[in-house]
What does this fold into?
Amino acid sequence: MKVVLFGAGEVCDSFIKRLPKRFSILAIADNNESLHGKWKSGIPIISPNEIYIYKPDFIILSCISRHFSTIIDQLTKLGLADLYFPFPCDHESEMRDQRSQEEKGIIGRRLVNEIRGSTTQSGSVFYHISLADNFKKTQNKYFSKPSNRFLHIGSGHSLGVEIYSLLRWGGEWSAIEPFPRLRGEYPFDSHVLMIQELISLFNVPCDETADIVFNGNGEKLFLDKKVSPLLNYFPNVKLEDFHDSETYDICYSCAVMEHVVDVESFVVKTYQLLSPGGFAFHWIDLRDHRDFSRPLDFLTIGKSEWCEYYGDAGHFLHGNQLRYNDYRQIFLQHGFRIVAEDVYMKNDKEYIQEVSFDFADEYRLLTWEDFEVAGVLFVLEKPSHDS
It folds into this structure.
């Protein structure tokens, strides 16, 4: 029997050891993107969106039981729920997890319920904390110069990144969100409290004396006992209409640029907003957002037809159909120096060969690399005046 395990953590190790020999483990699916492309005990770790490629007979959840309902919901959305095969849990791992939850006191109780509830209302707090840590880790990896002013382009409907970053590292953080439908009614107070509780719970070093409050217009937030605004929120403001008298040390975006119709204007504006020697981080998801399991299907539609039907809905789909090398060329054309390119997702080769027969004429001559790269992080530098 061919199976895919779901969950690549500690519990997975015990499942690999104790599954009967009649089970052949094809791959391990996990939601942690940093694990994708890696291996565990000689078995590839993949995105859940890639499970269908392996055509398993069953999917076994190799994680602790409190994650089951979330994963089964995810499998339902992927059309794979009927492949879920209930398998006896790892009792030792379950007991260890239970003791851990009891020692922490509130995880799994009120706080986690609130965090889970926030997922549909204003973005997952855990996700945005993880994103903030990832930004900082990337910054430390590629340069060491001090940075004080940060601009998040396309913050979505949660300021979790900025609130967490402000408490932990200080500085001045600004966030732009151009689409009013994504803004919603952001629960500032509840997210501030949840993030502060999580920081305390996990002993994250931060300014524990700082309380975040916001003024009457709801667009600027302050740390009390400070004079200047340290967190600025600009809802319903497009990047091309955004102006600031001061430049930024770092601009960053995550899964935003693929939704932009006029990418060149986006890049030019980002370049203008950066200080000389400043950096930009752009995580770009190059998959067809209509169906992540068919990541290149939108290349069967010509550019003019795509713009006509989908350009105005760029915040839901792709505002453009650019590929890896297209972005690379645009960054270089407009003055950026590419410090690093980190490909974090790849498309399956068999799928590429299958769908390539139906590509629109303008995409038939793309390089294999442009078909294969599904997600990439670009680290860019605006050259200083002295360079």
